[in-house]
Amino acid sequence: MIKINKKIVLGILVSSLALSSCNEILDEQPRSGYTVDYFNSADGVTSGVTALYRSLRLLYGNGYYMSATQNGTDEATWAQSADGNFKDLDMTGGATAINSSTFPTSMVWGSVFPYINTANGIIERGPKFNIAESLVSEARFFRSFYYFQLVQTYGGVPLDLGSGELALNISPTTLSKRNTVPEVYTRGIFPDLLKAVNNLPASPRVTGGVTKNVARLFLAKAYLTYGWWLQNPNNIPTYPDAARTDPDGHNAQWYFQQAYDIALQGINTPGSYALQPTYYDVNEGSKDRNSEQMLYADHTASSVFYNESDPVGFGSGWAPDNFAAWMQTWNYTNIKSSKSATSWTPASPITREAAQSLGRPWVRMAPPIGVIKNTFADKTNDSRYDGTFVTTYRGNWQKTGTGLESTTTLYNANNLPVPVGGAILSFLDDDSQLPNIVYPSGGGQNSVGAGVLPGRADWVISPNGISRIVYPGLWKIGTYRTDDPNGLGYPNAGLTRPFPVAKFSEFYFIAAEAAVKGASGAMSARDLINVIRARAEKKKKKKKKKKKKKKKKKKKKKKKKKKKKKKKKKKKKKKKKKKKKKKKKKKKKKKKKKKKKKKKKKKKKKKKKKKKKKKKKKKKKKKKKKKKKKKKKKKKKKKKKKKKKKKKKKKKKKKKKKKKKKKKKKKKKKKKKKKKKKKKKKKKKKKKKKKKKKKKKKKKKKKMEVQQ
């Protein structure tokens, strides 16, 4: 057995959880602590699930945890106000070896075991109270999540899955077996995450709740990390010492393929998650909890404050405050401008403000120069630099509480004026203008050692001038509060925004890395990375607009300068000319008077002539008009006569036609009458003939009768 100072207690804090609405943030009600008896009811078990979400705030948003995970990497180094702990983690010059007493290294160990124990209680007791497997799987997710944090930080750790002598233990213990890395992964992390993937819902139960895809993301990441551990290309030692073999008989390549397949499943079945349109949108404070943020540490439903109180003064700088942004914020309030254009009268153009680009300066961490010169070398096409750092600091002296509320203009570099909201200090994209920058020997007028470029009102610092004292601030997790929009807000208090833990874009990076390690599938590493690269690329239209704006601004500035120079020259000339002009004016006035008189006479004559001409013209016009009228009348009369004649002719023709028609009708009638008469005559004749025949027949009959 290895002696390890391990405290296994139940997670302190918790709450009652509303299970009905998928749009609710967890509603927490603090309690003094959990006992084993607390898990003897369904309410106790469900409250324990809420406590697991609260546990995220102990690490994420905690500046010391961020230091423990980032200092000494290619993302962060120690800054001016850093103490020994920060420097030790950086492992640069003057650092001492990291050991168990190096403060931030113990943060994960001391924070997560109580919540692993809470998860154990939920997993064991949940089925007894008919708690849904989906809810129990949330506990499985958090147990695997924290073991994943532990194994990445310390290597092998004691694996407590809720059985044996440590089951639901509420008292500290100093003796425990340290399991190997393969045991932690294969017995703890993988089984829990596989069950979570199968049983968690596709959509979050509550705002920020874990889902199938959240579990998939961490399962893919765990497979990828374990594959690297098995392969160990750099021969890194592990603790406790263990063979680089998998208990289940799989090799590193099998795990890389699993990581790829699961990550691709997550991409192809996104559910409610999606990439944001731009990199800037991912981190903008007003768009927190967007579709790309899959897991984040958040405040409660009953209080918008991250630390469960009302922080409006100075924050404590300790968990559960969200104060990580302070660590990489430098003393920008030291920048100076002048109240006067003629004599340097120092004033502070920028004051602490609860804005995403400002906040509270702690100066514990800084970006390494490699990030600025190498990682984000292409700042014209890559939007990530502007979406990560504060590159321009703007004046906010008009805000309530600065003492300069009535001042509209301050004077900056080259004694040029700067309006409210104008650029006070800018970090240049590269060192191309370095030969033209004039840096002071010390702090200079601006007091921070920034340089001056000809024609620019803002102080400037090129990448070569960045130090552990002055550097671009970390915008993406910066202070963002809306509870005091009219003034400076509460810049010294903790942030109220959620702190991101996992993002949908990570699926693409995991799958791409696995593909580089030999995994294969529908998308290549290049295809996967290009999706994210395309999103990170600055849009050309915007670039053109910006370039045009810059050109216009430059042109305007040049024009203004030229105008000023011309005005000065003109003023001098005007003074000399004024005296000469006064004398000349008197002479000119006399001449003008004479000329005016002559002109008046000429004008009068001209007017008279013009009037006469006009009269003549009018008369001629009248005559012409009369003639025209007469001609028109004659023409009209002729036309009328012609029309009358035509009408008469037409009438005559019509009459003739009518007469002809009448005659024809009469003839037809006569013919008809004749025909009728003829027919009648014929009929009469026929009748007579018939009568005669009848008479003859009768006579014959009589004769015959007589003869007989």
Describe the structure.
With 708 residues, this protein is mostly helical. It folds into three domains: 2-179, Serine Threonine Protein Phosphatase 5, Tetratricopeptide repeat; 211-272 and 505-534, no CATH class; 274-503, no CATH class. 47% of the residues lie in helices and 7% in strands. The chain has 15 helices and 15 strands. The strands form seven sheets. It has a three-stranded mixed sheet, with no helix packed on it.
Sum this structure up briefly.
The protein has 708 residues and is mostly helical.
Q: Taking strands numbered 1, 2, ... along the chain, how are they ordered across the largest sheet?
A: 9-12-13
How many β-strand runs? 15
Structural class computed from helices and strand pairing: mainly alpha
Q: What is the radius of gyration computed over CA atoms, rounded to a whole number of angstroms?
A: 50 Å
Give the helices and strands as they follow along the chain: EHHHEHHHEHHHHEHEEEHEEEEEEEEHHH
Any idea how many domains?
A: 3
Low-confidence stretches: 1-33
Mean pLDDT: 86
User: In percent, how helical is the residue content?
Assistant: 40-55%
Counted by DSSP, the helix tally is: 15
Distance between the termini: 174 Å
The major sheet is characterized as: 3 strands, mixed
Oligomer: single chain
Beta-strand portion reads: 5-15%
